[in-house]
Design a protein that fits this description.
Elements (H helix, E strand, L loop, with lengths): L5 E5 L6 H8 L5 E6 L1 H17 L3 E6 L5 H12 L5 E6 L1 H14 L3 E5 L11 E2 L10 E2 L5 E5 H5 L3 H28 L5 H21 L4 H21 L8 H13 L6 H16 L3 H10 L13 H10 L10 H4 L4 H10 L4
Length: about 350
Amino acid sequence: MELPRKILIGDGVVSDVGAIVTSLGPAAKNVAVITGAVVKKRAGKECKESLDKWSIASRWHTVSDASMATVKKLHDSIKKDDPDFVLGFGGGRSVDVAKMTAFSLARPFLSVPTSASHDGISSPFVSVRGTDKPHSIKANTPIGVLADTHLMSQAPPRLLAGGCGDLVAKITAVKDWELARDEVGEYFGSYAANLAYMSAKIILDESEKLKRKDRFSVRTIVEALISAGVAACIAGSSRPCSGSEHLFSHALEYVAGSDCGLHGERVGLGTIMMAKLHGLDWQKVRHTLENMGAPTKAKQIGLSEKDVVQALVKAQSLRPDRYTILSKVRLDKESARLLAKSVGVI
């Protein structure tokens, strides 16, 4: 069981990144920082100054996509510098690429997210294009997480809404895991499942307050995302956090391309439909997403009825080994269309 050793959340904590690196690796004198162009321009100076203050040399690498080709390029570029740590400083793309690069280099990884867009900020799982698996793959758990709520509150609101979509998904992911336990005898971890469920429930119960998207809201959502990521660490798999709704999201990338909305947006749409199949309160899921500004209709992220139907039919085939509600309820094109229409996704 791999868990983050240190988690720091608060306003302005990016100025403590040097202290965190030193506390986690007292001998660390050289780090590779993987970031995006916008984040580097907005907050790179403060991060570098903190590293400099602790006499930690930093080599910065800017990425524009999350693909295995980018990971390989970074691996080759960074390897010669022999860094003590790899930092992922930025949004979900930068964190995922940095996590995978650190894994390929066998170096500790520090997660420094600047947006609350998904639970990968604290989990060992990554979503990068160009792998031989049509779903998230396992790397290493971040050795530490530093979440600056001030920086996160300045990120585009759409990213925070996407994070809420990824959180409500834990409702159906846990139900899928329970179903796999009952139907096929799969191992079910009650503690990990309850932790993930709690991360979703706080969003479902508090969305009227959280929709203000103030500092309190950002911190609550960030803490919930970190808790969900830790649930995956405890489970040793993505089971408590990823089920049929995530399979639907991955299928959409196959059907409509990788630019069909944010990960959390696609997952949120999937959760509405999977909640209906599970007999859960799908209206509450939809209302929560609406409160948080996340899409509840496919057309809001440029998806057609055909895209949704094809993705629903294809979803389970992407990972036949993972038993979900889609394994039990075999959807064809007509039943998929009726499902999506019944909950207003199309």
